[in-house]
Amino acid sequence: QVQLVESGGGLVQPGGSLRLSCVASGSGVSRDVMAWYRQAPGQRRELVATITSGGMTNYADSVKGRFTISRDNAKNTVYLQMNSLKSEDTADYYCNIQRYPFNYWGQGTQVTVSS
Asked: What is the pLDDT of residues 23-69, one digit of tens each?
């Protein structure tokens, strides 16, 4: 069974940067689409970015130009580089693998953007 562990969250001032990491364990992860989601208090979970096994990426409009998703298949790790952070980026961030009919989730890492 696939397991995902996120890290790198914390408290940062507006305009600052953070890099989130997600380490995956299990078979065949290098062939899967990997994604980052986020969920603010009282809000629904929303898709932030995706990356295919071949490195093609897609971003939510709210983060395009500020966030970069990447992966290192040799390490079974996906990253989310977050620059120019805003208060509205405050949320719990979750790593995700979609392998129909299954969805795998990490435990989440909290990002707080505040002065």
From this structure: 999 888 888 999 999 999 999 999 999 999 999 999 999 999 999 99
DSSP line for 64-94:
TTTEEEEEEGGGTEEEEEE-S--GGG-EEEE
DSSP assignment letter at 29: G
Cβ contact 71:79 at 8 Å: yes
Q: Give how far Cα 100 sits from Cα of 33, 41, 86, Å.
A: 11, 28, 34
Closest CA to 22 of 88, 108, 112: 108
Residues 6 or more apart whose CB falls under 8 angstroms from that of 41 comprise none
In this structure, the number of other CB atoms found within 10 A of the CB of residue 65 comes to 9
